[in-house]
């Protein structure tokens, strides 16, 4: 223990772990404890394909803040990607096609077109590279953040630097195991109960992990169909978006539909070995909640509700949350900082 402030981070998904990392980078005197009931592969974050691609509906409190979150996130991930730690941290760069038979607009993305190195319309030949009948398409460069690697990577560093971890379910901000000067609420969908937040809704997702080491490019099609390459030759096939569904069981009909749609785009997948089926509930909220609040005397900064884009945007939102937390701390514990 140092004589610095005691800080709790609730949640060990991509948001909580990134908040904890930024806090430690900010000041080594902070005594930081991560409290969560699930870690690493048991979080929603570990189910995600982890492609950096915010949906165009991704939404902070204003358009400016949304864009700032996305840009800051991109540069955070780029810093890790350019370091020697990139593979251990789960970062890789690749390119992606997005095709549509119906809508030109789905192939555009105003949130990243000016950010990623390449974002362009495809030519006629490219419309024929997978499946048939595509009318519209874009090609862009982006990155993947594999949370199956990123979460353990952050956890190792966090513990090495003196961070503490407690496995526990939090019932309320006032019943934490110790007294904390500041609490970050990064509980994803768990915030629904913790904050009685009716605006937070699960959007159920299901994916199939297959062995496809030959796949080097991501491909998106209509109806939420996607094929994303990954580490160790394991690709993610998706997907579904089921609003307000809490069903954590694998649905065989969803699996069949995902396989059919993906194999139609890329017939080579028919022979790919299936490694796993996974389900996750995206914590959807409009807008994503990043704000301070004092709850029964406890100083809390909320950072949750990232929906289908939490891996992409965790760092940008975490940076704002940490800044808000430091402002809160300064008002009361000036001498400790
Ligand atoms: C199929 C699928 C594909 C996806 N693909 C992508 C993608 O390609 N790109 C992208 O950017 N995003 C993607 N997402 C979205 C992304 O996974 C989420 O936005 C992100 O994981 C949210 O992170 P989080 O840290 O807020 O939540 P979580 O990962 O759910 O972590 C929440 C943490 O809080 C803890 N917790 C909750 N309540 C309590 C409590 N009461 N007490 C103690 N601990 C608690 C949990 O144990 C956990 O540790 C996808 C999601 C799914 C389901």
Automatic annotation (TrEMBL):
Entry keyword set: FAD, Flavoprotein, Oxidoreductase
Residues annotated as domain FAD dependent oxidoreductase: 7-321
Needed cofactors: FAD
GO function term, MF aspect, one: FAD binding
GO cellular component: cytoplasm
TM annotation in the entry: none
UniProt cross-references to SUPFAM superfamilies, sorted A to Z: FAD-linked reductases, C-terminal domain, Nucleotide-binding domain
Chain residues that bind D-dopa: 226, 282, 308
Any one biological process term the GO annotation gives: D-amino acid catabolic process
Entry binding sites for FAD: 44-45, 170, 187, 307-312
Domain of life of the source: Eukaryota
Protein family: Belongs to the DAMOX/DASOX family.
Full protein name: D-aspartate oxidase
């Amino acid at each position: 223990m140092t004589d610095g402030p005691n800080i709790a981070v609730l949640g060990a998904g991509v948001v909580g772990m990134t908040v904890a990392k930024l806090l430690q980078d900010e000041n080594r005197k902070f005594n930081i404890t991560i409290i969560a009931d699930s870690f690493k592969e048991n979080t929603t974050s570990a189910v995600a394909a982890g492609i950096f691609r915010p949906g165009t509906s991704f939404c902070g409190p204003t358009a400016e803040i949304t864009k700032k979150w996305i840009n800051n996130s991109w540069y955070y991930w780029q810093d890790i990607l350019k370091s020697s730690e990139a593979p251990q941290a789960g970062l890789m760069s690749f390119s992606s096609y997005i095709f549509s038979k119906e809508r030109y607009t789905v192939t555009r993305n105003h949130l990243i077109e000016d950010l990623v190195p390449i974002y362009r319309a495809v030519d006629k030949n490219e419309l024929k590279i997978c499946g048939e009948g595509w009318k519209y398409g874009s090609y862009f460069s982006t990155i993947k953040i594999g949370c199956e690697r990123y979460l353990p990577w952050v956890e190792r560093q966090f513990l090495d630097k003196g961070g503490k971890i407690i496995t526990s379910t939090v019932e309320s901000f006032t019943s934490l195991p110790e007294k904390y000067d500041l609490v970050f609420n990064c509980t994803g969908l768990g915030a629904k109960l913790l904050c009685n937040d009716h605006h937070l809704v699960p959007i159920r997702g299901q994916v199939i992990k297959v062995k496809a080491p030959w796949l080097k490019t991501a491909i998106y099609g209509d109806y939420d169909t996607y094929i994303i390459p990954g580490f160790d030759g394991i690709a993610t096939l998706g997907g579904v978006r089921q609003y307000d569904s809490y069903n954590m069981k694998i649905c065989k009909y969803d699996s069949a539909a995902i396989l059919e749609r993906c194999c139609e785009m890329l017939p080579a997948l028919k022979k790919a070995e299936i490694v796993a089926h996974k389900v996750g509930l995206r914590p959807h909220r409009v807008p994503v909640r990043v704000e301070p609040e004092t709850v029964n005397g406890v100083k809390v900064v909320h950072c949750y509700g990232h929906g289908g884009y939490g891996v992409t945007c965790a760092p940008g939102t975490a940076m704002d949350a940490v800044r808000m937390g430091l402002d809160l701390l300064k008002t009361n514990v000036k001498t400790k900082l």
